[in-house]
Amino acid sequence: MNRNSRVNRTRWWGAAALAASAAVLQACGGGGGSDEVTGTVRFALTDAPACYDAVNVTVQKVRIHRSSAAAESDAGWSEVVLATPKRINLVPLTNGVLEELGQATVPAGSYSQIRLVLAANDATAPLANSVQPIGGAEVPLDTPSAMQSGLKLQAHFEVEEGQVADFVLDFDACKSIVTRGNSGQYALKPVVTVLPRVSAAGLKVEGYVVPALGTGSTSVSLQLNGVVARATVPDATGKFILSPVPEGTYDLVVAADGRVTAVMTGVPVAAASVTTVNPATAAIDPAASTMRVASGAVSTTGSAAIPDATMRILQTLTGGPTIELGARPVDAVTGEYSFSVPLAAPVKTAYAAGATTLTFAADAAAAGKYTVEASVPDKPTQTADIDVTAADVATPFAFAP
């Protein structure tokens, strides 16, 4: 089951960038003389849980500009350029693993645009950008033509004089891959968010699921009002690390194929210390569950065009919270989507500092009940409540042209 994440953007600045090691990073552009006031931008890369064995992208450079309206050929761009394009597999970058991307000196000030420039697949590097489906063969990943001029992303961040603007770039690989019917082809639709990285002892949540859940099919996430703030895959020991996470109070959601969904409410995140939700001796071990399929297709009324739709599957527990169990784009050719969800009731417990045991209670009233959400840019979001108790459920959505 695809258990991807969305990012809570309440206080985070949106941006996107990928790069290589510090040794191959250099700053250029931006203009100005030797007396120019400058600061430093620094990036590290991480990834949300992915539903592929590998997702590779080859990065050439990242461009930043103060104006959100600046065109590719306008003056005033600063660039972080890789001496040699770097091919990066996004999938291993979970559970606290960061790919340090290096830093560059740029003019100090406010920035409002980032352009991510990827290398193109060509005869010399046909798999510069590629995807490997689970259990399948590696195939080329088509990138938008905009990638050669730079994919335009709106960003709002400050580079202060003599200071380092430090960010972790969260690339949601699963949400960024669009299938194309039965052709075996895949296209890249980048979904990347930037998280400010601060020098703090905390802003981190850690704990354990049983080692058997230490696989790519398991997602552990922190959510707020049904929106994923941070998600990861536990390691082989079952340990999970969610970092960095803005200060606040969240719901911890553990979702795994063939298991009921486990929810821990009221998990605090503070700057002063790490939050440990449970020790290895009290690892979270959700009971087995039959899985059902919630599927369907998204269409455009009166047209063969497939909307650029993103789907989510949600579940509301009795008394709250509402949680997200998956999110993905629809197939670009057919408009189809599919999620695998537990038939059995979710279980819930409340966070307790220093707890050495965990007791989860089943929420029988929520068993088999879900909400499917379809979002298309510039269109009202559509939702449908479904019940998979008796059987799999197919739910179509149609959007106006």
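(ticket continues) Second input and output from the same batch:
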Amino acid sequence: MITDKLSAMTTPTVNFYDVLRERGLVAQTTDPDIRQRFEKTLTAYIGFDATADSLHVGSLVPIMGLAHLQRCGHRPIVLLGGATTLIGDPSGKSEARKMLQHQQIDANAQAIAAQIGRFVRFDDSLATSGGGAVMVNNADWLAKLNWIDLLRTYGPHFSVNRMLTMDSVKSRLDPSNESGLSFLEFNYMVMQAIDFLKLHQMCGCSVQLGGQDQWGNIVMGIELARRMANADLAGLTFPLVTKSDGGKFGKSEKGNIWLDPRKTSSYDFYQFWRNTADADVAKFLGWFTFVPMDEVRKLTGGQGAELNPAKQRLAYEITRLVHGQDEADKAMDSARKAFSASRDVTGDAIPHAPLPPEGGTIAQLLVAAGLASSNSDAKKLVQGGGVRLHDEKVSDPQQRVGPADARDGFVLLRAGKKRLFRFDVA
């Protein structure tokens, strides 16, 4: 766990909105005076649907929002979508999500809760005052509703005309989108609006936070609570994470960058952040770490090689937050050794696996190592001159590699300048 993640937890000595604004984490607000709301201790929530057994790095923006909220003395609520995951949020999606079973959703929710728990301190009861976070599951109230009760209780308060104006719906109604929008997904907005109303009634929650793609869902929740409970609620959205080169954030050659070390090792996680583009490093330090912004500005004042210390700091800080200090230390140390003049790749943090007794072709080993997505991808890497066996360039993707090719007890494959994998020989 992070030892310094919770500072003052009683009074908002620093305004939460000011913190987000300085770090570039405010996209939209429903209330032009929302800053004033954070001058007093309040309760706010963010929802996470349990669509996988791990969150990925794109989820770190709302998670950091929760952590900043708690650090500023407010009470965060983490809402797990045990019920909404059964439906699937159409926001930002061009087609329907895969339908999951109850058992898988419950397992996913438990894994996600543990990951968020590295960033915020949880209390056990909604009645707890102060900054202790609480975790709830919307299946506790949504799963109990029957069809007629839902229609009669909540249906009169939703305008279909209004719902059709929301981006999450409009984008799926485009004639060019063949998958369209199912009636099932159309109801997602209703369910999330009920969540906001319920959390307000249960524990006085007055603000919903979320990604920019959640704007329509947040607005509908505010409107429902106003109509049914005469409540004055507000919403704030974070910007969607984009890369300066237009590429998709959170992807590497191996696929998604996950928070679960079984899916993405601490070394690969560290390297993902270490390889941040020059144009993104200042923004990412503000978004994904607690490094003071004055220090961020000093770290990112240069260009080119002068930004390497900033990238190392970014990689170390976010790896420490997600995987703990020991793993961050190992990843940083292994990366330094692997790319130094000594080229020491023997550390446990370096991605590694046993070499199959029969060995394999360069292409097969590249795929097995996750350095290529397919044999054809491996072939392109080799033909482009980007693959080395130990320190020797490879020209044939069908070259056989076996135990006889080992040096110091391992076979080392390098793809490009910063990706490598070690196959250990028994």
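Agent notes: The radius of gyration is 24 Å. The first helix runs from residue 16 to 22. Closing as not reproducible unless the customer responds.
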